[in-house]
Design goal:
This protein is an alpha/beta fold. Helices cover 51% and strands 13% of the residues. It has an eight-stranded mixed sheet, with helices on both faces. Helix 9 runs parallel beside helix 10. The longest helix is centred in the first third of the chain and has 17 residues, at 26-42. It is elongated and about 70 Å long. Bound molecules: guanosine-5'-diphosphate (GDP). Residues 109, 111-117, 145, 194, 249-250, 252-253, 275-278, 282 line the site of guanosine-5'-diphosphate (GDP). Keywords: GTP-binding, Hydrolase, Nucleotide-binding, Ribonucleoprotein, RNA-binding, Signal recognition particle. Its EC number is 3.6.5.4.
Length: 297
């Protein structure tokens, strides 16, 4: 597997030590478990998550009844696979749509994580599901972001509500929502200002925008390259403004896997979608089982 290659290789070291053994014991899994622990830490998975993971896997491995025909090393692979799936939330976490009126998706995130790109990618994705969309340009501090959103909106054939940078983000959001109701749009995607770091001004603005929108989804866009820091961000944003999930971007880059593996466990919030490239079609639902499969190679 090209993605998370280092993690895949590190885990393989664990199984390779169990070739030829007849049964998994506390003794013979000790070293493979250290390999697993090391591989996860090197992938930048958060330490408490690694500890729980390793404990759970060893408990299961030693108690396991041998399934006929399945070799012990393959049994450990299976246990790790299932544990990885659970760690990432188990089932796919679908986007929620409003029962009546427009579905409102509020997007938040730090600067440079790919938020503006995600707005357009999400509209493109939802259009394919047969939903009409509108983008709302609420990133008032970066005129370039508004222009970028207009260009991307045009590219994917979705209207962009952009009254400029004079109004406050919450006002823009409110007007955008009214416009969407008037035009019977199914989904309104609201872009917000990203900052280089979390600050009070950003959080206050997001809270205010959330209040006027009463959004169906509040999704934090995080960059996979930031590893377990992404999980910390999801936790902070959730505590501060209340979010419904995360969108993990740049999974096509050489991220090590820590973000994908830590976010749900650390923050309690699922990853709903992942970005794997700069093209508009590079956004897809996050499938924990497929991800686990890719990690295991
Ligand atoms: P924003 O500041 O959060 O709005 O970030 P942008 O949407 O402007 O994206 C920042 C840069 O990251 C741009 O060059 C995007 O093309 C790039 N980008 C966004 N998402 C992805 C992704 O999933 N993969 C890759 N490789 N690049 C991405």
């Amino acid at each position: 597997a090209e993605m998370f290659g280092q993690l895949t290789g590190g885990l393989e070291a664990a199984w390779s030590k169990l070739r030829g053994v007849d049964v998994l014991t506390k003794e013979n899994i000790a070293e493979p478990m250290r390999d697993i622990r090391r591989a996860l830490l090197e992938a930048d998975v958060s330490l408490p998550v690694v500890r729980r993971f390793v404990q759970s896997v060893s408990d299961q491995a030693v108690g396991v009844d041998l399934i006929k025909g399945v070799k012990p090393d393959q049994q450990l692979v299976k246990i790790v696979h299932d544990e990885l799936v659970g760690l990432m939330g188990g089932d796919v976490s679908d986007l929620v749509f409003a029962k009546t009126g427009p579905t409102v998706i509020l997007l938040a995130g730090l600067q440079g994580v790919g938020k503006t790109t995600v707005c357009a990618k999400l509209a493109f994705y939802l259009k394919k599901l047969g939903k009409s969309c509108m983008l709302v340009a609420g990133d008032v501090y970066r005129p370039a972001a508004i222009d970028q959103l207009k260009i991307l909106g045009e590219q994917v054939g979705v209207p962009v509500y952009a009254p400029g940078s004079e109004l406050k983000p919450a006002q823009i959001a409110k007007q955008g929502l009214e416009e969407a109701k008037k035009t019977m749009t199914d989904v309104v995607i609201v872009d917000t200002a990203g900052r280089l770091q979390i600050d009070k001004g950003m959080m206050d603005e997001l809270k205010e925008t959330k209040k006027v929108l009463n959004p169906t989804e509040v999704l934090l866009v995080v960059d996979a390259m930031t590893g377990q820091e992404a999980a910390a961000l999801v936790t902070t944003f959730n505590l501060e403004i209340g979010i419904t999930g995360a969108i993990l971007t740049k999974l096509d880059g050489d991220s090590r896997g820590g973000a994908a593996l830590s976010i749900k466990e650390v923050s309690g919030k699922p990853i709903k979608l992942v970005g794997r490239g700069e093209r508009m079609e590079d956004l897809e639902p996050f499938y924990p089982d497929r991800m686990a499969g890719r990690i295991l190679g």
